[in-house]
Write a structure and sequence with these properties.
This protein is mostly helical. It is 48% helix and 7% strand.
């Protein structure tokens, strides 16, 4: 008896939900690293079923944008923006640099409570960006879009998947469900003053919630559109996809 589309979608959803539950159960010293890496692999796998013709970055970010329900995906990380503006002393960026520094100076929150709603949106920053063509090129290879949390998430995904490494020095403490910033002081043994940094953290719970949200909404989308997700993968004995 042939499987209906709805049955195939349910089987697909059950499979990935089971994977998510097994990832959640991982324990040990490197549990957070392993969990984040595997959750990114789940998102990669899901992206194949909905955007099979896109390149990896576009597949991943398109999936999160369309199905992730992440409120702050188009917000620009203010500490990252300020760092870029520090590397470009051009007076054309003076107004934006001053506003960005003033906004960062208004951040006055205790440990772990600097939320992404403190970050400006890409549209807000774009309105302050110099309009001349010469300023539309990347600064040190970094575009404004690269500073959005959606693109930073993909950068984090790359570090996890390709290097098994969490970016930055932030500490994922407790069961925080949403990304946040925290202050950090790097104290040396010398007489020099400690280096103060603002660390961005995408916690484990955020990755888990993103996976379950995407999977739930994908399931609804496939059923509504009468699409079988298995049609967009190739299965077979050969390790070269085109041979199957």
């Amino acid at each position: 008896m042939n499987e209906t589309v709805e049955e195939a979608v349910q089987r697909y959803s059950d499979h990935f939900m089971n994977q998510i539950e097994q990832i959640r159960a991982i324990s040990g010293e490197s549990a957070d690293l392993f969990k984040k890496t595997l959750y990114c692999s789940v998102l990669d796998a899901l992206s194949r079923s909905i955007f099979p013709r896109k390149r990896p970055r576009e597949r991943f970010t398109s999936l999160v944008r369309r199905f992730g329900r992440w409120s702050y995906q188009d917000h620009v990380s203010l500490p990252h923006l300020i760092r870029v503006l520090q590397m470009c002393p051009d007076p054309a960026f003076e107004k934006l640099r001053m506003i960005a520094n003033q906004k960062l100076g208004s951040w006055n929150a205790p440990w772990g409570s600097i939320r992404l709603d403190q970050d400006p949106t890409e549209d807000e920053i774009s309105k302050l960006w110099p309009r001349r063509k010469e300023y539309q090129i990347p600064i040190e290879g970094v575009r404004l879009e690269s500073l959005t949390h959606l693109q930073l998430l993909y950068s984090h995904r790359n570090s996890l998947v390709h290097e098994l490494r969490i970016l930055g020095y932030g500490m994922d403490i407790g069961d925080e469900p949403e990304p946040f910033y925290h202050d950090m002081s790097n104290i040396s043994n010398s007489d020099e003053a400690p280096i103060e940094t603002i660390e961005l953290v995408y916690p484990v719970k955020f990755f888990e919630h993103l996976c379950t949200t995407v999977l739930t909404r994908l399931k609804e989308y496939f059923i509504k559109n009468n699409l079988n997700p298995y049609d967009y993968y190739r299965f077979g004995s050969y390790w070269i996809e085109k041979l199957n």
